[in-house]
């Protein structure tokens, strides 16, 4: 199909040329795994984001089809497709933000850690290319197990001396999105007005909602706390089981990924007070990585907030979360070091 690259090269149209080079102001964003269940709606939503001037869609399959389709949307971002490993570096050069939803999803009965064997290698390869082509980009990691893939990314960057802990962020926004929804449901609130901090990591007991810190302030019964904690921690499994073998959350994840990516871009632009939960290199606990509220700015993570006062229930949850997280972090680090 005709595309801006062909018009630029074959017809030499000055105006096309200008736009195809991403000359308009705005950010350059790459999605790696753009033809997948998350990748496609994520690409569509990023094409609708006015902060994006150039959108690179990379995958090992079907990237040209998704690109042709999305490029017909009459929004301002210019879209380009990249297919296969040999085009990976071209997809990454000059990018401000790289979002990674590449990798296999769970089927019923699997844990996120069961994806490690396949997804660890995928994330490692992609991060090696990022380290080479756009080491200053902000990287949003969605591929599971996030608790291990973020340490993998960090180790890859460390190996070649470009690790910047401010720029590598594991996306835990879906946990917050779910927590806001479920709390709003039982309290009869508008979910847009609810803010639940979710800390720790992104798998089972490592997903720790801090219900004592919900805004607006809510008072829950112990039964409600047990119900909410269990539903938030197992929200992913709820979707995996409902999809019955056809994958895991894709649409709510694309929504959450865009909410987070948009926050990163607004922060890069210089907007003040952009605060969200993310899984990052951290000193909030004794673990080297932890999810908590962070303030985003022009350089990525500018400030990591402490957990704040926890009640006894949350303190017990924190101990369980840290125990599992420690193993997942070590597994990721060893994978790159071995
Ligand atoms: P999917 O199978 O539908 O799509 C994955 C895409 O990745 C495919 O298009 C595939 O071709 C591509 N891919 C595979 N290897 C690649 C490589 N080396 N380079 C580039 N692309 C490659 O899966 P999905 O439902 O989109 O889920 C993707 C990942 O996101 C899974 O690991 C899943 O567990 C994870 N996930 C994370 C969260 C979160 O909250 N962080 C939420 C949902 C899903
Ligand atoms: C989710 O939370 O929906 C994702 O991590 C996908 C999964 O495997 O549950």
TrEMBL record:
Q: Which reaction does it catalyse?
A: (S)-malate + NAD(+) = oxaloacetate + NADH + H(+)
Q: Which GO terms describe its biological process?
A: glyoxylate cycle; malate metabolic process; tricarboxylic acid cycle
Active site annotated at which positions? 202 (proton acceptor)
Outline the extent of the Lactate/malate dehydrogenase C-terminal domain: 172-335
Per UniProt, which keywords does this protein have?
A: Glyoxylate bypass, NAD, Oxidoreductase, Peroxisome, Transit peptide, Tricarboxylic acid cycle
Identify the residues that bind NAD(+).
33-39, 59, 119, 142-144, 253
Where is it mostly found? other
Query: Which residues are in the Lactate/malate dehydrogenase N-terminal domain?
Result: 28-170
What are the subcellular locations of this protein?
Peroxisome
Q: Which GO terms describe its cellular component?
A: chloroplast; peroxisome
MF terms in GO: L-malate dehydrogenase (NAD+) activity
Residues bound to substrate are 106, 112, 144, 178
Transit peptide: is it a keyword of this entry?
yes
Carries keyword Mitochondrion? no
Give the enzyme's EC designation: 1.1.1.37
Protein origin, superkingdom: Eukaryota
How would you summarize the oligomeric state and partners of this protein? Homodimer.
For this protein, the record's NCBIfam families field holds:
MDH_euk_gproteo (TIGR01772)
Q: Which family does it belong to?
A: Belongs to the LDH/MDH superfamily. MDH type 1 family.
Protein name according to UniProt: Malate dehydrogenase
Q: Which organism is it from?
A: Populus euphratica
